[in-house]
Design a protein that fits this description.
- By secondary structure, this protein is mainly alpha-helical.
- 72% of the residues lie in helices and 1% in strands.
- The protein is built from 21 helices and 2 strands.
- The protein has a two-stranded antiparallel ribbon.
- A hairpin with a 2-residue loop joins β1 and β2.
- The protein is globular, with a radius of gyration of 26 Å.
- The two termini are 25 Å apart.
């Protein structure tokens, strides 16, 4: 045996030993359960159990699974250093494809995101996720890069937002929102928690402001509960940030207790003495707090005061622009989905129909489910998109609560395993890419399952490894197995 052949065998043996086979096993198990769910969701009584017929969706899903396994093997045999070196090229290629897609795609239910290739359709947005993850990892692994520096953070955000802009042009808001998951990775890499908190605060302002926009604070009150609560939250959040990010407890007490105290006194005066719009007093308190913090920032030369004042100003601007965004920027179907979710509208025959039927299907499964192919809601096609976006309701109806719990536990195990793999990476590129992967999986899982249960808006994103379709399955496979290949290459730095 030659020395070259001996080295090749040792390299192959080292690769096989370095691959995380637990993650591969989880992937295969989820693929199998996903195929069974597709069979259950697409079964036709005239089909007579012919699940391997390529003219059926269950048969075609076998094709997608087989090609995905082939892709997985090819990726594991590819040198991870080659993948890293091509990160920028892969990203630029998919950015060009994304911007070209609206001009090449056919309109499918108002979306311009599918390109016809022969007898198949491909959605480039599904593949752009791994390309973006690779590019972000490459950028952040550069020497001297740190997300605590604003310039570097903006560069990373720009890499993330360019595909988002291209996908929005395709009228695929759901796919664009997936890229928000990258901010979880940025937080892990050192992004200030205040930025993540600002994003969460914006969601709170929007939900509370819209949900209670027409509910009075009390019967006959001249002010709605929505803006009243939002302005109260802004004052509390501003005071809370002063407690967390400065050591000036006196200033924190003045803004928190003083500001909220004035708001409370004004509310009591309006309730029991002379009715008036308390919101004007609240706005005055918030404005005074902002001016006070700006004054302190100039006097004490402390940037924390400036940042907190900017947070409060941004909060006010966001609150008063939320109504405009909801009614004048979002599409009518998006407005209806949000209003139905928040309980402002009841649309059982329109947007709310999908969620209602999905809840009925899941609830009918009970503890143990009705059994494979025995679901009535799915077999009679009551649930729209039951083999794609709403496939989790098939799991609930046929496998019951126990089946849903097993699926969620498998996904939880996968996510925890990805965290473990990401943390053991000896260099930044692998760690950043790993956290991008688990963030995307976590976002898809949370939104898809929440969507089926009526807890999140219906934005049309697939459940990984379960939803029917080649683009999503290939995209998730490539995303996962690039990371497994990067993880398998860590042995070079550990010798």
């Amino acid at each position: 045996m030659s020395a070259q052949q001996s080295n090749t065998q040792r390299k192959g043996a080292g690769l096989l030993q370095s691959i995380d086979w637990l993650t591969v096993l989880l992937y295969v198990v989820l693929l199998g359960m996903g195929w069974m769910s597709v069979c259950g969701a697409t079964y036709d009584f005239d089909q007579a159990g012919n699940f391997f017929d390529f003219s059926t969706r269950s048969g075609m899903q076998i094709v997608w699974i087989g090609t995905s396994l082939l892709l997985a093997m090819l990726l594991l045999m590819t040198d991870d250093r080659l993948i890293e070196s091509l990160s920028y090229i892969i990203y630029l290629l998919f950015v060009v494809v994304l911007f070209a897609t609206p001009f090449l795609a056919h309109d499918i239910k108002g979306s311009l995101s599918w390109i016809k290739v022969g007898s198949f359709s491909i959605q480039p947005a599904e593949f752009a996720k791994f390309a973006t993850a690779l590019c972000v990892a490459k950028v952040m692994s550069a020497s001297g890069f740190t997300v605590t520096r604003w310039r570097d953070l903006l560069i990373a955000c720009l890499v993330i937002m360019v595909p988002v802009a291209a996908i929005i042009l395709q009228k695929e808001t759901g796919s664009a929102l997936v890229y928000l998951s990258f901010f979880l990775m940025l937080y892990r890499e050192g992004m200030a928690g205040s930025i993540l908190f600002a994003g969460i605060s914006a969601v709170v302002y929007f939900v509370v402001g819209v949900r209670f926009s027409e509910v009075p604070v009390w019967n006959g009150a001249p002010v709605a509960l929505g803006p009243y609560l939002v302005l109260l939250f802004i004052q509390l959040f501003t005071g809370g940030m002063l407690w967390l990010y400065t050591e000036r407890r006196a200033v924190a007490r003045q803004v928190t207790f003083g500001g909220v105290g004035i708001m409370a006194l004004a509310t009591l005066f309006s309730r029991f003495v002379i009715p008036f719009n308390v919101v004007w007093v609240q706005l005055g308190v918030c404005a005074f707090s902002i001016l006070y913090l700006l004054y302190l920032a100039l006097r004490d030369r402390l940037l924390a005061y400036l940042y907190i004042a900017l947070f409060a100003m941004g909060s006010l601007a966001f609150h008063y622009s939320a109504d405009f965004v909801l009614n004048d920027v979002l599409q009518p179907h998006q407005q209806t989905r949000i209003k139905v979710l928040l309980g402002l509208e009841d649309d059982p025959r329109g947007v709310g129909y999908n969620v209602i039927q999905a809840k009925i299907a899941i609830g009918s499964g009970g503890l143990r489910g009705k059994g494979f192919l025995n679901g009535t809601q799915t077999k009679l096609k009551y649930v729209p998109e039951q083999d794609t976006d709403f496939i989790f309701c098939t799991v609930g109806e046929e496998e019951g609560f126990l089946g849903c719990a097993i699926v969620l536990l498998l996904f939880l195990t996968l996510i925890l395993r990805l965290i473990h793999l990401a943390e053991r990476q000896p260099y930044t590129f692998g760690r950043v890419y790993g956290y991008c992967v688990l963030s995307i999986f976590l976002f898809h899982l949370f939104i898809n399952v929440g969507m089926v249960l009526g807890l999140t808006p219906v934005i049309g994103i697939p459940l990984p490894f379960f939803s029917y379709g080649g683009s999503s399955l290939w995209g998730f496979t490539i995303l996962l197995f690039i990371f497994l290949r990067i993880d398998a290459g860590r042995y070079r730095l550990q010798r």
